[in-house]
Amino acid sequence: MTAPQPLSVLVATDFSEDAGHAVARAAMLAAGLPARLSLLHVVSAPMLGALRAMFGGSDRQDTEGRMIEETRQSLRSLATMLGNLDGEIACEVRVGKIVDEVLAAAAQHDLLVLGPRGSNPLRDLILGTTAERILAKSTRPILVARQPAREPYRQVAVAMDFSPDSVAALRAAARLAPGAELAAVHAFDLPFEGKLLAAGIRDDEIQHYRAQARLDAMRGIERAAVEAGLDPMRISRVVQQGHAGRTVLEQAEHLGADLIVLGKHGESGLEEMMLGSVTRHVLSDARCDVLVARREQ
């Protein structure tokens, strides 16, 4: 069997505590997988604009140059602190709008890792977190590291809706967490259940429909596992009736999951502007790391 190509992992950092969790997790992934690690920091163009307003002439250019060089040196120091990883850690400093530059850099990699919040809480409150704004536009899988990276992932909850995106989520979970227990979580809803009850349909008939929906979901998870190239016996199956986002979070908590994996849907213009409700719900309320996977185009 041909060995998998090394994963190219980019971690974006603003040197905050949240970003530190992302850097540590990315380094742990790189150490445990065939992976190449790159560090990225974006110097905000508006911040440089403020410097230009404060300084003039050669003083302005010297100040900008020193700030960029000091940032580059901070990245190199961070790379040195990460210890012995296979291969050199690449360091890149970009200047521009943070979201645009991170997206442009991520397009050259297989996986982007970042923290859940940026360094500007007020901007995050008004516009959504940096992670959310990047996720809405990204064409690459993104891992949002919420917790300190103390050990490799041990328990992964994969949200399933039987779309090609959720198959990609299963595949990504198996690749990023090869030693973890995988649990496929599906939330189903019985269409028109309220109207059926109001129409006097017997409770035993409704129970039959629920049981059939649960059985169909169990079979769907098995088919998705096969399509993802995984042994279905490796994956535990959790099927519950209820709201998808709430069910995923509840089951992740029950399982003690340290990673939740979802598939990102759609390519529409609206999708470019906002995240789906389930993804946003999970990103907002999850206590563990969250990976938003993308199917290969």
From TrEMBL:
InterPro entries, per the entry: Rossmann-like_a/b/a_fold, Universal_stress_UspA, UspA
Protein origin, superkingdom: Bacteria
Coiled-coil regions listed: none
Residue ranges annotated for the UspA domain, each copy included: 9-146, 153-294
Family membership: Belongs to the universal stress protein A family.
Name of the featured protein: Nucleotide-binding universal stress UspA family protein
Organism: Quisquiliibacterium transsilvanicum
